[in-house]
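Tokens as discussed.
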């Protein structure tokens, strides 16, 4: 990991734990951003010294004001700059001369407004670099540190959140205000709360690495609108998870497929940016969330309770219907209903009414009071066959909701296993929910959300503790051969390799290509087919034709020289009819691959993440079914296997429904070889092997067709 990432703690200390703060550009007008920020720092009990800087005022809220930063007589650690964007550069220059090492630039009017703003942003970056100032922003809400020894609210948020162990960081300031309100309603506390805006200097990765080493932070939440350096982000997230065990949760906006239609291959079309983000975050062990609610549903589970060591859950309920709903949701999330030991069931028999269900879900009956919940929950958590408990309550006329909530908290907080709750309803259960939330017992409005959070927590534990298995590195490859072909294509200005060159590149990396060559006439095709051996496949070769099947540019099972000549004429005629301006190089004649299952292997070079591998069901309908999975290259050996298993149609390869099992071992090797090729041949922007024919178990695979875009 690079030095800047390792230095995050020292670089950002003046911002998060300053002994003194100057609010540069504040005013005396309530309801304005400059005044509200100054007032927040003042009223929220900042433990250091605060200096208002205002050219026109003698004092702000009873505190002596200074005309310029340089007029402050004492050292200053942090400057919160709220001047208009046109003069922020002057303020930064003064901060530099004053020796200030940290800044938060609240002001908008930079990169987000166009070229003039870009120039202003570059200027403040230049000034900051020259003076060694680390700054967050511009165009941000600010920073909050709830640590009692600091207690800094350098933001224009409406309130200071309570202290907690969740670190939240967001590119969007507007989302921050909504999140603070949401968290306040649910009694969720934060260690650090950060709006980083344009990330002109301090990046999302810098902030993640700071939170990695922050003892007050147990869980890291990130909202992103863009991922400019995906490879570094993934590497940092993986490092945080591996070194500290802290979960990283990401909510990223922008899930559309716009732009994919312009891609040059099946892989390019299928690997829309969001699928790549999904794969990359999953590969790093990051939990990706779709909504703010899901983000915090997962966060409170991870922050408040022990991680579930397995997926065996005990469900405790006072109503049969919700118990069944929870059971369905648990099974949907691949959780298991725990099988209680005989001693646990005996405890239930002695302590619960005869009408109670003592299996799982444990139904303590509608008139249950706190004592039944105590017995049912405590005994279930003590059972070695249980990994965690899900507690449901529906408000009956005799239900003492608050006492039950207190008892659930008491039992849960004594156990090394997690307890999640769902007190169903709204008004009647509100006080009980408040008790649960104040005592850090995760609460969910819906049982489905509760089960999903439990599953994600266990998923995280398994990914965190998964052994690091390096990618396979093959020695029997010939990179120089591939590089020579790719360099020649680039020198000639060709966007695509010929079929023969594509096969040669794949062959150089040990992928199972079939014999074949390019024919330039009907007679040449007949000779080539005879030399290769019948039957053969014949395919049009043109830089201008992406999908050969669509224009009837492929003919299979050619079994004689005369048929080869006729096939050549037909293929060329079809190509000219479909695309009159296409440059037809000839027809590629290739040995038939034989029978087997068709899959697709692909490669796309993503702007943010680098080389991305794709695997899925192959053939001409690949873009219709979209049954594919992705990983960043180089792909660790065990993740190649995961990649294969993720595809819904994988059962077609393993003998499902009486089908003949295919050679998945050979397929796995093909993916590993393609992973190495992806890393060592950066000239390739997109690549399709479609189809790769996977033959019967022990018989290997064959590359039937390939396309490489450089």
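Sequence:
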């Amino acid at each position: 990991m690079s030095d800047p990432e390792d230095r995050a703690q020292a670089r950002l200390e003046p911002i998060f734990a300053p002994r003194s703060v100057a609010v540069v550009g504040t005013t005396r007008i309530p309801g304005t951003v400059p005044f509200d920020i100054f007032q927040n720092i003042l009223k929220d009990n900042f433990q250091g010294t605060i200096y208002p800087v205002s050219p026109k005022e003698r004092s702000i809220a009873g505190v002596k004001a200074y005309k310029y930063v340089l007029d402050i007589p004492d050292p200053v650690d942090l400057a919160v700059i709220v001047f208009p964007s046109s003069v922020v550069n002057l303020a930064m220059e003064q901060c530099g001369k004053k020796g200030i090492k940290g800044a938060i630039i609240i002001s908008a009017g930079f990169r987000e407004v166009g070229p003039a703003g870009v120039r202003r942003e570059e200027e403040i970056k230049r000034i900051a670099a020259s003076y060694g100032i680390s700054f967050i922003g511009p165009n941000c809400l600010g920073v909050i540190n709830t640590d009692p020894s600091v207690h800094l609210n350098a933001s224009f948020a409406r309130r200071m959140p309570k202290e907690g162990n969740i670190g939240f960081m967001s590119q969007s300031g507007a989302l921050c205000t909504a999140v603070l309100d949401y968290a306040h309603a649910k009694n969720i506390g934060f260690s650090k709360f950060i709006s980083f805006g344009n990330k002109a200097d301090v990046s999302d990765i810098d902030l993640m690495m700071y939170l990695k080493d922050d003892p007050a932070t147990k869980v890291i939440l990130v909202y992103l609108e863009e991922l400019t350096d995906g490879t570094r982000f993934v590497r940092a997230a993986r490092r945080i998870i591996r070194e500290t065990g802290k979960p990283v949760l990401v909510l990223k906006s922008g899930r559309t497929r716009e732009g994919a239609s312009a891609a040059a291959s099946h892989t390019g079309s299928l690997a829309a940016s969001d699928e790549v983000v999904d794969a990359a975050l999953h590969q790093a062990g990051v939990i990706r969330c779709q909504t703010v609610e899901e983000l915090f549903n997962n966060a409170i589970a991870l922050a408040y309770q022990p991680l579930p060591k397995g997926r065996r859950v005990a469900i405790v309920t006072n109503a049969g219907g919700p118990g069944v709903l929870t059971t369905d949701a648990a099974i949907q999330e691949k959780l298991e209903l725990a099988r209680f030991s005989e001693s646990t069931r005996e405890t239930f028999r002695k302590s619960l009414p005869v009408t109670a269900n003592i299996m799982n879900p444990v139904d303590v009956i509608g008139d249950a009071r706190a004592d039944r919940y105590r017995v049912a929950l405590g005994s279930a958590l003590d059972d070695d066959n249980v990994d965690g408990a899900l507690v449901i309550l529906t408000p009956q006329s005799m239900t003492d909701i608050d006492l039950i909530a207190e008892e659930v908290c008491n039992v849960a907080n004594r156990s090394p296993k997690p307890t999640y709750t769902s007190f169903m309803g709204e008004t009647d259960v509100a006080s009980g929910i408040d008790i649960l939330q104040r005592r850090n017992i995760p609460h969910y409005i819906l049982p489905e959300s509760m089960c999903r959070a439990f599953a994600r927590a266990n998923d995280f534990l398994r990914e965190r503790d998964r052994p690091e298995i390096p990618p396979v590195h093959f020695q029997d490859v010939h990179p120089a051969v591939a590089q020579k072909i790719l360099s020649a294509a680039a020198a000639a200005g060709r966007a695509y390799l010929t079929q023969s060159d594509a096969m040669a590149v794949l062959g150089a990396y040990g992928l199972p290509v079939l014999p074949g060559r390019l024919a330039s006439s009907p007679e040449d095709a007949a000779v080539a087919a005879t030399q290769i051996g019948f039957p053969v496949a014949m395919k049009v070769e043109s830089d201008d034709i992406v999908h050969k099947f669509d224009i009837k540019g492929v003919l299979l099972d050619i079994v004689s020289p005369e048929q080869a000549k006729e096939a050549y004429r037909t293929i060329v005629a079809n190509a000219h009819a479909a695309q009159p301006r296409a440059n037809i190089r000839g027809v590629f004649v290739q040995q038939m691959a034989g029978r087997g299952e068709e899959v697709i292997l692909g490669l796309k070079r993503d702007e943010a993440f680098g080389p991305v591998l794709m695997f899925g069901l192959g053939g001409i309908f690949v873009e219709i079914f979209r049954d594919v999975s992705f990983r960043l290259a180089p792909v660790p050996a065990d993740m190649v296997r995961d990649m294969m298993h993720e595809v819904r149609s994988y059962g077609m390869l393993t003998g499902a429904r009486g089908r003949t099992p295919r050679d998945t071992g050979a397929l796995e090797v093909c993916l590993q070889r393609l992973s190495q090729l992806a890393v060592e041949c950066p000239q390739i922007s997109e690549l399709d092997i479609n189809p790769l024919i996977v033959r019967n178990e022990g018989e290997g695979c064959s590359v039937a067709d390939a396309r490489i875009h450089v």
